[in-house]
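Hi R.,

Here's the chain you asked about this morning:
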Amino acid sequence: MRAILLAAGCGTRLRPITNTIPKCLVPIKGKPLLEIWLDRLTKAGLGPFLINTHYLSEQVVSFVETSPYRDQVTLFHEKELIGTAGTLIANLDFFSSEDGLLIHADNYCLADFSAFLLAHSQRPAECLMTMMTFLTDTPSTCGIVEIDDRNVVLKFHEKVANPPGNLANGAIYLLSAKLLEMMGKEFQGVIDFSTEVLHHLVGRIYTYETTEVFLDVGTPETYLQANNTGA
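And the predicted structure, written out as tokens:
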């Protein structure tokens, strides 16, 4: 299964670390974050991959060119950032009319992707996608989801004070071919997938909760935490 890895962000919250290195290449336990992603996804039988670039893109190009995964990676450079939905819509042909993954690759994620794919294959018939979720200790800083007893999304609470719960959107999405077709027809001009697309799909989003390590390495504090936890 093909996957788009969103890796073009500037990582402003992680400065000064990201003054000289793109966020997607910051080392976790001595290994670039993007390498961790490619390694884990490949071992789960996923690929090929499309990676978007922008900030310090020459470093990402150099990394890919010397990576054992270089033959499985297509790079998509964005001179100006076009947003998560914009990147997806611009590259719909990459999925060849099949289901595919859209991944925010700025997270340190040790989830079981084989189990994620299995959950997607067993989703309720009305669900157009499967979202990975995780339990967070800081719900007010995350997009919190409410789900029903079938694990289908009922409501979103995007970074609000005192949200009703701590089940967070992991921004890792397994999209059906039907939804990808809809993206090309009904969502042209949309920029952000999480904030501009998902609320249109409430009641049609299945969820899979990972109990493995899941951290947004967006700040020096969480970056330090990622380097001191997990496998």
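The chain has seven helices and 13 strands.

Let me know if you need anything else.
M.
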